[in-house]
């Protein structure tokens, strides 16, 4: 990528990288205040640790509860960081996000609505109230690549698209991880002292479960994906896969329950083997495990009558569905 020098995970000097980034953050923010949004993913978790090392109490970390996260995610993540001595404030923004998503069906419009709600409405207000002039953000090189190539607009990429965050949103963005890919971020995250549950955490997209609802995103559809995600994650945690997910399709399909026609919901499971998310292949899961998933989802998730497994590589598939 032009202008950004890639730092590869292999042979990386994690301590050296951390020290360099901590210095850069300190120098940029000076005696001011910075804020960052923690989602619990490895990228934002690593950034939170770097920012905390550089700024301590002058870093304000927020967890935005956008209503489209997994079950209990806000409380769980805030709890882990509390134990590490990093205070995290949970902001309830569920209403704002669902209002912004209402009526939208196009994937890029949905992503854009989440981006705007996140950075302009919710964060804009927080920045104003906190007096922060800087936002620390966990953008990585793969986000930039895919956005610039026009494959998928990652919600956290601005400058590379010619968008100036200062004039658009009123704050500067610092991106300490932009030279890294996921494998490099994991090394950094581990070296900052994060627990394995975070540094080895499966990737989860910025648009969260909204990336896994095809068509309009509503609280009801998110709830279906949320319950299904819990089942899929529990069953596939020991698969060793890079990432696994449940997707709710927009179309209903004919099924039957108790001798009657049930025009029900269709879930797609995806489970990926990958090193850095640039290419991926579906994991060769045992057939019995797939059947167990089908049984559990169709009995435990109300309305589901069909469960499928994606068997196409990335490319031409992408990992998420929107
Ligand atoms: P795709 O779907 O592009 O996913 O093959 C590649 C990796 O990136 C994650 N992903 C996202 N992460 N914002 C993010 O922060 C996004 O908009 C986004 N879309 C995809 C995805 O989960 C996978 O790990």
Describe the protein's topology:
Layout: H1 14-29, E1 34-37, H2 42-55, E2 59-65, H3 73-83, E3 88-92, H4 94-101, H5 107-130, E4 134-136, H6 141-148, H7 165-169, E5 172-174, H8 182-191, H9 196-199, H10 219-236, E6 243-248, E7 253-257, E8 260-273, E9 281-282, H11 287-300, E10 304-309
Parallel strand pairs: 1-2, 1-4, 2-3, 4-5, 8-10
Antiparallel strand pairs: 6-8, 7-8, 8-9
Helix pairs in contact: 1-2, 2-8, 4-5, 10-11
The structure holds xanthosine-5'-monophosphate (XMP).
Describe this structure in words.
The chain is of the alpha/beta class and 322 residues long. It has two domains: 14-199, HUPs (Rossmann fold, 3-Layer(aba) Sandwich), CATH 3.40.50.620; 213-309, GMP Synthetase, Chain A, domain 3 (2-Layer Sandwich). 41% of the residues lie in helices and 17% in strands. The protein contains eleven helices and ten strands. It has helices spanning 14-29, 42-55, 73-83, 94-101, 107-130, 141-148, 165-169, 182-191, 196-199, 219-236, 287-300, and strands spanning 34-37, 59-65, 88-92, 134-136, 172-174, 243-248, 253-257, 260-273, 281-282, 304-309. It has a five-stranded parallel β-sheet, sandwiched between helices. Strands 6, 7, 8, 9 and 10 form a five-stranded mixed β-sheet that branches. α2 (42-55) links the parallel β1 and β2. α1 (14-29) packs across α2 (42-55) and α10 packs antiparallel against α11 (287-300). It starts with 13 loop residues before the first helix and ends in a 13-residue tail after the last strand. The mean pLDDT is 93. It binds xanthosine-5'-monophosphate. The site of xanthosine-5'-monophosphate (XMP) has 16 residues, from loops.
